[in-house]
Design brief:
There is one protein chain. The protein is of the alpha+beta class and about 675 residues long. It has four domains: about 90 residues, Alpha-Beta Plaits (2-Layer Sandwich), CATH 3.30.70.120; about 150 residues, no CATH class; about 90 residues, 2-Layer Sandwich (Alpha-Beta Plaits), CATH 3.30.70; about 230 residues, no CATH class. About 60% of the residues lie in helices and about 10% in strands. The protein has 21 helices and 13 strands. Strands 1, 2, 3, 10, 11 and 12 form a six-stranded antiparallel sheet that branches. Strands 5, 6, 7, 8 and 9 form a five-stranded antiparallel sheet that branches. Helix 1 packs antiparallel against helix 9 and helix 14 runs antiparallel to helix 20.
Length: about 675
């Protein structure tokens, strides 16, 4: 498969038909708007008032959903706290059942009818948002009052132990009654005994001291006590501090109950969560259309629209537009050289999941080769080698395909699951070839081609050989691309020379196979022809000569040409480094097998314990193998992607494309069945 061809759509229509035209263009989700070229000075770009209005509506919905989610979490926490308090006997049970509304980040599967229904209920749903906003204001006010009450209680708390009404703390004739507090004073008695006053000390949250003295001594006592950290009470309420605290606490409790009631009132609107989420994306579609209209050029009665349609559906889509609005004028144009059309990659179901890997690196440009079909083959092979166990692979395959074919999950999750599932299939194949099933030691070699733990050197050679194949394929793709671009000499000198070196390496490896076989632990049942080595040397010398002679061909002086050639030869070190990077296939496979074998030995020891040893051993083994499998999947996913990004794509792939984003595809909460 390849990158889909795009058609440039230019449309001139009447303003009264604008919505009909957009409906026809977006009915199949295959139209992407683009900025309209300035065709006439009489045309003006669209206004942004509609866009701002839609953004305001969307922000209200977003606030309402976030508010309900927060209140749901608050209520869940409150009910859990109440349950704990009831168990301790310190509170009465709260009679409230929390709804089962899910506030997950995934997108809900809906139908187009659900989408239309939510759009029809926009007025009512926005009224719900307004009501939730009013509740939020009330909650903010109540919480602010509670915080203020807590601060006030904190001010009265130091005087809580005093039995005197605060209104009595005043001068009465020649006598003054005062109340002081301090957080901690080591020995206030010694200080007070030296002052002309009578006092009463009470300890609670700190120290409170009631002092009575003559008016003439008030200033002296106030100064002495203040110097050591005592603060004088300034309150004059007609009650004790404890009575004031009780009153404030009662008010706070009333407000807490009111907050609970407001929260309950807010959660009654949870029944609208699904429709609010759908409406959010309904408005998102309207925003996309508003953004598109901003790209239009307009007069008082007409507008010009431009955009992209896949060529395969362009004509049929245009016919639908003309059928809906006969007065419209439409042109289908081929993309110009200066255009940068969006990239729509079209692959079969087996390759599509691997597009995520390429998109993580960078989507291909419109006129670039789609690397996914070739890359997917290598990614599939390498993933299986890194896991290296048939039993692990079977688990991954079953789990991956179950999730990947389920309608409960979003497209991104399903593609990732299918990617892992296909990697599991590869792991089953390689696991059978390696004779690895949960790394169990069967006492005899059950492998078909090699046992990684018994013939690690052969596994290393296999890994490097596969790396050489992939790098060679990368240069072949670059060779073809350069030829298509009309650069045959660059193809021959820059890519052909490297390809010759890898072919020479392959011939040399085959020619040396009989002498290497004992070291690799294999038997060779044939004698390769002696001319293979000669051919390998000739090809290698030819490749080196091409690099040395033509590596500096772009330089304008002799010195630059000579240096460029040697620089090209020096660049072979980088290619050698790339080849050695494929040793990670060997390392991860060997690590997975060795760790699994160690876990099995540990499990066997535990199972040998009399009594419940077998049961405990099975549990421990299950946990350890799950850990090894998870570690293997993560390592395989990351390192396999790294091999594609650096060692493979670095040879031929530029990327830098922009994925096709048709109107209606930018949904946050919903996806269509």
């Amino acid at each position: 498969m390849a990158i889909a061809e795009m058609s440039h759509v230019r449309l001139v229509g009447l303003k009264r038909d604008q919505n009909k035209i957009l409906d026809a263009l977006t009915a199949h989700g295959l139209f992407e708007a683009r900025a309209t070229d300035a065709l006439s000075r009489e045309l003006e770009s669209g206004d942004t008032s509609r866009f701002r209005e839609l953004k305001l509506k969307q922000s209200k919905i977003s606030f309402a959903l976030g508010f309900l989610k927060a209140r749901h979490a608050d209520m869940a926490a409150a009910l859990a706290a109440n349950k704990r308090a009831v168990k301790k006997g310190s509170a009465d049970a709260v009679e409230y059942t929390l709804s089962d509304v899910k506030y997950s980040d995934g997108r809900t599967l809906i139908t187009r009818a659900d989408f239309s229904d939510a759009a029809a209920k926009e007025y009512d749903l926005l009224h719900v948002c307004d009501e939730l906003e009013k509740i939020s204001f009330k909650l903010v006010e109540r919480r602010a009052r509670i915080n203020a009450l807590r601060d006030i209680v904190g001010e009265y708390r130091p005087f809580e132990q005093s039995p005197i009404k605060l209104s009595e703390l005043k001068r009465g004739g020649d006598v003054v009654l005062m109340l002081y507090q301090a957080k901690s004073i080591a020995s206030p008695v010694e200080l007070l005994n030296g002052l002309p006053c009578a006092y009463d000390i009470r300890r609670g949250d700190g120290i409170s001291i009631t002092v009575i003295c003559r008016a003439q001594n008030e200033e002296e006592i106030n100064k002495q006590l203040g110097s050591v950290g005592f603060a004088r009470c300034v309150f004059d309420d007609d009650c004790t501090a404890k009575q004031k605290i009780d009153a404030l606490t009662a008010e706070s409790n009333d407000i807490e109950r009111e907050i609970f009631e407001l929260t309950v009132n807010a959660l009654e609107y949870e029944k609208y969560v699904r429709e609010l989420r759908i409406l959010y994306d309904v408005i998102e579609l309207d925003i996309e259309r508003a953004e598109a209209t901003e790209k239009f050029l307009k007069t008082d009665s007409a507008f010009v629209l431009e955009g992209w349609l896949p060529k395969v559906v362009a004509r049929s889509t245009v016919d639908e537009v003309v059928s809906a609005c006969p007065d419209v004028f439409v042109q289908l144009l081929a993309p110009e050289e200066r255009d940068e059309p969006p990239t729509l990659v079209q692959n079969n179901k087996a390759v599509t999941p691997y597009e995520q890997i390429t998109n993580m690196y960078s989507p291909p440009r419109y006129r670039e080769i789609d690397p996914n079909p070739v890359m997917s083959v290598f990614y599939f092979l390498f993933f299986g080698i890194m896991i290296g166990d048939a039993a692990y692979g079977l688990i991954l395959a079953v789990a991956g395909f179950l999730v990947g074919t389920s309608k409960k999950f979003d497209v991104g999750v399903k593609r990732l699951a299918l990617l892992v599932g296909m990697g599991g299939v590869s792991a089953v194949i390689w696991g059978v070839l390696f004779g690895s099933y949960f790394s169990i030691d069967f006492g005899t070699d059950v492998s078909i081609i090699l046992n990684p733990l018994e013939k690690p050197l052969l596994l290393l050679v296999l890994s490097i050989a596969l790396g050489c194949v992939q790098i060679t394929v990368g240069y072949i793709i670059k060779f073809v691309a350069l030829c298509k671009d009309g650069k045959p000499f660059s193809a021959i000198f820059d890519c052909g020379s490297i390809i010759l070196l890898f072919v020479a390496l392959a011939f040399l490896a085959v020619g040396m196979l009989p002498s290497l076989a004992p070291m690799l632990g294999i038997e060779v049942g044939f004698a390769p022809p002696t001319w293979l080595t000669t051919v390998a040397v000739v090809l290698a010398l030819t490749g080196v000569a091409l690099i040395l002679i033509f590596g500096g061909r772009k330089s304008k002086n002799i010195f630059g040409k000579v240096v460029g050639g040697f620089k090209g030869l020096y660049g072979l070190i980088n290619i050698l480094s790339d080849v050695l990077s494929y040793c990670r296939l060997f390392g991860l496979c060997l690590a997975s097998c060795a760790i699994g074998l160690a876990f099995n030995q540990l499990g066997n020891i535990i199972m040998g314990i009399p009594g419940v040893g077998y049961v405990i051993g099975v549990i421990v083994l299950s946990v350890l193998h799950v850990f090894n499998l998870a570690l293997g999947v993560l390592s395989a996913y990351v390192h396999d992607a790294r091999l594609q990004f650096l060692e493979f794509y670095g040879k031929f792939y530029d990327g830098g494309g922009r994925l096709f984003a048709p109107l209606g595809s930018r949904t946050k909460y919903v996806r269509f069945a």
